[in-house]
Amino acid sequence: MFAWLSANLVNLALILAVVLLVALVIGSMRRDRKAGKSPCGGNCAKCGACSCSQGCAHGGR
Amino acid sequence: MDKQIRIALAGNPNSGKTTLFNKLTGANQFVGNWPGVTVEKKEGKLIVDKEVVLTDLPGIYSLSPYTLEEVVARNYLIEEKPDAILNIVDATNLERNLYLTTQLVELGIPVVIALNMMDLVGKAGDTINVKELRRQLGCPIVEISALKGDGVRDAAKAAIEAAKTGKTLPQHRFSGPVEHALAHIEEVTVHNLPEEQQRWYAIKVFERDEKVLEKLQLSAETKAHIEQDIAAAEKEMDDDAESIITNERYVYIGQLLKGIYKKKGKGQLSASDKIDKIVTNRFLALPIFAAVMFLVYALSMGTSIADGGIALGTFLTDWANDVLGEAWLTEGSRAILEGWGAAPWLVGLISDGIFAGVGAVLGFVPQMLVLFLMLCLLEDCGYMARIAFIMDRIFRRFGLSGKSFIPMLVGTGCGIPGVMASRTIENERDRRMTIMTTTFIPCGAKMPIIGLIAGALFGGSTWVATSAYFIGIAAIVISGIMLKKTKMFAGDPAPFVMELPAYHVPAWGNVLRGTWERGWSFIKRAGTVIVLSSIIIWFLSGFGTVNGRFGMVDELYGDETVVTDEYVAVVAERMGIPEDEVEPMDDSILAHVAQPVSVIFKPLGFGDWKPAVATVTGLVAKEDVVGTFGVLYNFDARAEQAVDEETGELLFDEDGEPVMEELEENGDQIWANVAADFNDFSGGHGKLAAYSFMIFNLLCAPCFAAIGAIKREMNSRKWTWFAIAYQCGFAYVIALIVWQLGRLFVGGMNVVGLIAALILLALLCWQLFKPYREAQKLAVQV
Prior knowledge:
heterodimer, A: 61 residues, mainly alpha, 2 helices, 0% strand, B: 782 residues, Rossmann fold, Helix Hairpins, six-stranded mixed sheet, two-stranded antiparallel sheet, 58% helix, elongated
């Protein structure tokens, strides 16, 4: 078991890093969604050009 | 603890409210140099005093209930009753701006006037007797320059002071018959309202303001009573109530300004007027606009400065693709991971999946930043507002409203706020039509697609990028004309009144902020949605079933017991390619799913599974088109049949054998592979196929996020589906016409395809040029 772990340590660490990255990305996208930020990546709540700046946060008009 | 002080920032559109708001609160709201940038109110705390909340209201000309902005602003002022109003007045347009001021002082809320753009007044040699104006209006006035930040803190201090101690009493009195009617109205209808608001309500009742009458819920008897007073005043003044009030306000302002506002060289043209005489000239406006946009695209996405062009953006993007994307991210990470002894599939996932996909998208950031910088400069100096004016002249000719152009301007950054900006259009049919067509304009996320096609297939040709912008505008105009001739959208265009701001030297703060906000949203998407998509695309394109065995297709293809000659023949037949062109990815899950779907795109010239996948992933995010190519084409150099650079035709030697060449082993590998593949599946017409691919991806349905915005704005499932179907259908028709007719010139004409293209072109022309007819009879009985 220990031998297998030590042989695959790099792979396990990389898998963990990728899983962590995916979790962070999904978490960030969910947080943005809940905060009413546009999925376009631009922050609608701050964007004066976006007339939905208030509406977006509350799910529409 | 002291009570929180609430100050409302009110003023005409484009008078500098958001600039002042940003200066006072330290916020970074988007500042656009065209009217109507702020539609909703926004709040921020004053930098110098966190107990003071400043509310930025939308720009309005009056407190009438005719536009969404006016309703938002006046509801806030009446319902929320802020402690003070900071009325920002454009000193260069004093007469028109004071029209709103005369109404604000009637609300019973202390008003402080921030006289903005005083530096421009001084520069023009004009003078304003501020002391006398202050005396006549009965409220404090502070001279400011919001752009330079001069006097802004004094204005805030004055507003705080007014909120604590001030009281503003309207100095203006209407003529006898009107005041007589107002007195009656106050006594009969609004005496139970707060005293300071009674006069404003009485004036609105006199104007027969429906929203106010609805709110007051007057009995029929009371209504009839006050109607007698209003009618009597109307008879005496020989005008309708609303016009009487408007006229008297302007007469009052006119008298007020006599002796206060001295204009130097009255009747002479200002510098802005002189520029406008050329820039908005009936004949010169469009060629100038075309030349300006050509220059913008030449600087950002044209031929690199390294190749004798002027495009700084392309030069930097080439570097980003070669060094950052390929050498550092993809190859660098591969070398490190292999050095660590990581499993091949993990190396593939991280280097060929995540880094190749994200790197491909990030490589275009320099081009985008240069493009956005140029567009922000044009916006901030005031030129883009002129474009809306020029476009209105053209749009109107075709029955469209120039109001539709503002969402288009906003949409160059991102389609979502573009769609949302359509809210300013009151006419429901025009609004729906604008929502359906706004995303035709290339948004930031579509720029990499344009950059990819222009760079990989056309050697950085400027006209490809410029044409993409004008194809977007043409698609909007053509769609508008065609849709207006259908029953669903028929009707006169909504009137479009827009004030052209004076030209000024761009404020670098605004320009850099606008550029960064747009660029950052792009970078952020590369770090989120593109990462996830790249992982999924890598998995689906890297794994599959080869001759009955599931696993990594690269590894399975290395096993000669699995991949036999007979099996290769089967794959070649399924994919419709020669046996020597079969590659492991052809057996991936993605190829199996996408190959049948790609048939749909055959008539458009890119009926291969890879562009088909890129088109579909473009619905997740438009940047994903390039990200997908980054993953799918991220393989080593290989020998390809050489293509004539001039004609795009495949080359053969004297014996009729294909001339093979090794693709260059450098950072442009991915894009060289893309170009080679487009040449392969299009029979040597890679440029035309790529142009058709670009057109389809620019015009088809936008990303899911923008579709969500369309759904919210349409507020109807049926209309949302109609919009998506229209966009995809229109994109398909245009791409088909381009590909099929294009082959008439480059060779390889297909008779069936040509006939289909000609029929579709004829139908388009028929819909475009048939006479416009209003409905002759009512569809609904009344």
